[in-house]
Amino acid sequence: MADTGSTGENLLFLTDEQLRKGIEAMFFAYRGFTADPDRILAEMSYGRAHHRALHFINRARGTTVNNLLSVLGVTKQSLNRVLRTLIEDGLVESRVGSRDRRERHLYLTRKGAELERQLSEAQRARMRAAYRAAGPEAVAGFRRVLEAMMDEPSRQHYQALKDSKP
Amino acid sequence: MADTGSTGENLLFLTDEQLRKGIEAMFFAYRGFTADPDRILAEMSYGRAHHRALHFINRARGTTVNNLLSVLGVTKQSLNRVLRTLIEDGLVESRVGSRDRRERHLYLTRKGAELERQLSEAQRARMRAAYRAAGPEAVAGFRRVLEAMMDEPSRQHYQALKDSKP
DNA sequence: TCTTTTAAGTCAGTCTTGTTGACTTTCCAA
DNA sequence: TTGGAAAGTCAACAAGACTGACTTAAAAGA
Fold first, then answer.
1. Do residues A54 and A61 touch, judged by C-beta distance below 8 A?
2. pLDDT by residue (tens digit) across B30-44?
3. Which residue segments constitute the domains of chain B, with CATH numbers given?
4. Residues of B with CB below 8 A from A10's CB?
5. Structure confidence by residue, pLDDT tens digits, A40-57
6. Which residues of B touch A70 (CB under 8 A)?
7. Distance of alpha carbon B150 from alpha carbon A130, whole angstroms
8. Nearest CB to B142: which of A126, A135, A141?
9. Which H/E stretch holds residue A13?
């Protein structure tokens, strides 16, 4: 049916109309994306920022504060507030570096890992339903477009995490 | 090559690993998605909330405040602050309803339409590049997954806007 | 060794964007 | 004519981002 060759391509998918639909889809979908974890977080008076910190500490165990800062793309002061409450509440452990003792390495405690699992499972559940409804081909396209939409620093972080261990 | 039938399907795309990549892709891509308009807005000391209001007033000219409220999913007080500055600055016009004079119908002024165009063109440019890089099949999948990720009220709003006039 | 740089943390203040709650004004419709 | 809906306003608050200035500790370099 459609000619998807590299030269004789049908470019109708690049009209402003199509782009606008994609933009609105991103806006509305992102709300769904964050809705379930947000509900859980609200119950325990945490916010989205806590979720993000837990997620990336879990993904890159033993990461330094500086690295987390650059992944999250926020300032040190902003992260510090969140990190402090997580440490005080016993969800995150901060260990002095052995090679470089200026650095702090961050780890989830058992309690922190439990909350992270709860939050990410809620988020995965919706994602799983969406993936299942859309099918594997759609999922591949979904990821391809998102990757092309990232700016360079984000893409670097994304790629670095992409194939790291569970 | 791949069997994508409804029963004998390969379900590897539903692993937690795959879902996690999708979640991280959404997180990093959303930053790219908002980055360009955010830069423009910062210069004129507006925020993302102003952009959203301008976008949907443009999309649904003459919409009422109540309708805009439900599309944006924020409280009346929150929207009102944003709307007030946009009206004061002459970007949005609020007309008393002729049929129901309690309602206000919202329109962009020439100046408001100009800013909206500038913001959305910046956003479209990135979207266009991503679409072009990923190709039409990927774009179709991208949209399909996003639509499946929305919660019900958002999907309603999305569908209502989807095929409305330019 | 002395100096500079880096990593982390802190204090103070600001801004945007969201929230509740209470209240008024306007005005349609039963 | 009165009840209730739509809109708007005021006040207070919170999360989460920001800047700027500063401290402490430790590594790295001259």
1. no
2. 999 999 999 999 999
3. 42-162 (1.10.10.10)
4. 136
5. 999 998 999 999 999 999
6. none
7. 9
8. A141
9. none
